[in-house]
Amino acid sequence: MHKLSIKEIIKKINTEEPFHAIADDYSFTLKIDSYSHYICGAVHDGHQFRKELWSNCLHTEYDRWYEEDPATKQMVQNHPIVIAGCDSRFEYDLNRAPEYAIYEDAWGKELWKAPLKADTKNRSLEKHDNFYRVVHELVSKIESKYGAAIVYDMHSYNWRRWDREVPVINLGTSNIDNARYATFADSWSKILSQIELPINTPVTSAINDTFQGNGYFLKYITQNFKNTLVLATEFSKIYCHELQHIIYPEVVYAISQGLKNQLPLHAKTFYDQFIV
């Protein structure tokens, strides 16, 4: 992996050069083994939190971890194109529009002891902007190369805060073009429910049950690219113990293996059917 500037990353994308990079501000990683017709994203995988923010933050390190999506990058690490955030959503949220990306409060609790200064916010928003500059170039390259693209937008959610039974996997599709793409969402949901996991509950999958797919990553790509489908895919945190701050690596591995086998097949079905 190489540390690259945004300009260098974009240049490599434009020339279709495979590379593994971390942005020179250490805010996100991008791995491109080959320029395939599908992309995997994990915008909330990051946990980094700038040291200058520590003393002003009312949330603990555990509070932040609880609301992030740990291990979502690891779930898709086997795929040819993976872009993932390194910074915590508590610094700036890549799944929110820039004007809402910096929290004032988070999940009902004030976040800062004192309001953030403008220059502090701007440093974070510059990283948000850089990420989307690269996303734009990446999706543009794949869509222009193949005529269409599909993006698997990986997330997780805290199932323990729900007071009802919830699915192990939820797809949010309210902001995709369902007239064109609903069959691909349905087939992806069915495929996900067939992944075998070492957990003591059936692997259930649903569409628009716990979340509806309202994130900015999905909306940005959908609004800027006519022929790219983004599937917001959320695993409930059955792969960790939310309350004890423990990751279950055997479950993460099983998810990654299931996706390694099934995700490319689904992407090929999309490519074959949509392009033809």
From TrEMBL:
- Pfam families noted in UniProt: FGase (PF05013)
Determine the domain of life of the protein's source. Bacteria
Q: Which InterPro entries match?
A: N-FG_amidohydro
Its name, as the record gives it, is N-formylglutamate amidohydrolase
- The protein's organism comes out as Aquimarina celericrescens
